[in-house]
Write a structure and sequence with these properties.
Elements (H helix, E strand, L loop, with lengths): L1 E7 L1 H18 L5 E6 L4 H8 L6 E10 L9 E5 L9 E9 L3 H11 L5 E9 L12 E5 L5 E2 L15 E6 L5
Parallel strand pairs: 2-3, 2-5, 5-6, 6-7
Antiparallel strand pairs: 1-9, 3-4, 8-9
Bound molecules: inosinic acid and magnesium ion (MG).
The site of inosinic acid has 16 residues, from β5, α3 and β8.
């Protein structure tokens, strides 16, 4: 059994997403941007963020995962490349969470090969204590401790993505 402990309320998420939208709009004033979102965790975040951005946006989606049953090797498998032609575009890669950083580093490199004019990274959550691959993050919603979180797009074995708030998930019987 799992116990869900509320970590970030929907209201706080909305307020922070609004700030990030403003920041991105200011940084790209007078430009058009492509928001390239990592599936599936980033979809709720980008749906809200895109509506808080005042410059024209295009949406695209990418998908990459660690090899099944081989998480520790750090090998990543691409499931869905970008659909848009990103050459010369101002791209913001949208992530749900940066944990070890491997997925984001992989996606960043993948997009860079498409020769965008600018490539920035925006993540809703950052877990810096678990980082194995260092990278610059341009926009971070919340920095959290080393705990597994669900809700607002984030899953545990495909569950809990549709929760409004973000929760830390604890194994029942875990020391708090
Ligand atoms: P990384 O490659 O280790 O940075 O892993 C990133 C991916 O692992 C994220 O895009 C999530 O899908 C998943 N992930 C890492 N930490 C969490 C978490 O706390 N909750 C839900 N998913 C997570
Ligand atoms: Mg996941």
């Amino acid at each position: 059994m799992h116990k869900l402990v509320k970590l970030i309320e929907a209201k706080r998420i909305a307020a922070r997403v609004e700030e990030l939208g403003r920041e991105i709009s200011d940084d790209f004033r007078g430009e058009q941007i492509a928001l390239v979102t990592a599936l599936k965790g980033g979809v709720f975040f980008v749906a809200d963020l895109a509506r808080r951005i005042s410059v024209p946006v295009e949406l695209d989606f990418v998908s990459a995962h660690s090899y099944e049953g081989d998480r520790s090797s750090g090998k990543i498998r691409l499931e869905k490349p970008p659909s848009l032609n990103l050459k010369g575009k101002k791209v913001v890669l949208i992530e749900d969470i940066i944990d070890t950083g491997r997925t984001c580093a992989f996606l960043r490199e993948l997009i860079a090969k498409h020769e965008p004019d600018i490539l920035k990274v925006c993540t809703l959550l950052d877990k810096p204590s678990r980082r194995l691959v260092t990278m610059a993050l341009d926009y971070v919603g919340f920095t959290i401790d080393d705990q597994f979180v669900v809700g607002y797009g984030l899953d545990y074995m495909e569950k809990y993505r549709n929760l409004d708030d973000i929760y830390a998930i604890e194994q029942e019987g875990d020391a708090a």
